[in-house]
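Curious: why these numbers?
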Amino acid sequence: MTPARTTAAAPADFRQRLLDGLALSITERGYQDTTVADIVRLAKTSRRTFYEHFSGKEPCFAALITEANNEMIRRIAAAVDPADPWQVQVRRAIGAWLDAADTQRAVAHSWIRDVPALGMLARELQRDLMERFITMVQTLTDTAELRGAGVGRASRQQAIVLLGGLRELIATTVEDGGRIADITETAVQASIALLGPSS
């Protein structure tokens, strides 16, 4: 006798649906105006399911931002060929960064503007995300091609300036109704100037 097939979603599927529901609500209403009811409605699930995965809107938001940033870091690292000339590597990394931000403009903007309002959770989240970006930047700049061009491994301070500058540039562009793609050249040239040989 063949066992009956089940169509029940796995817990991870429900969690992803909730994160997708939050991302959609942020796009439609903004994070501040989003409620748990909005999230479950868009996720097509129940409040009970929501609270099986998250204790409230803020932890769900933290999970969404963490997932979005992990995907951004993955895309940036995948875009860079360490054998390319160093300026090409910078251009590809920045291009991937901006493309990832443009894919989820509202979520990227919300990360920059809304996360600080989360109190202690925000501080822990921001520090964790910052450390991941610092590690990524230092890894991408610690290659034979860059060393051969006189470009050293980015310092912690350089990585923080790079992240902070690009985040603010993205946020103000979104707020002004601009296209993220239009800031590519500025972002690339600023990054090359920051990371390039000092002499």
Notes: The chain has ten helices and no strands. The radius of gyration is 19 Å.
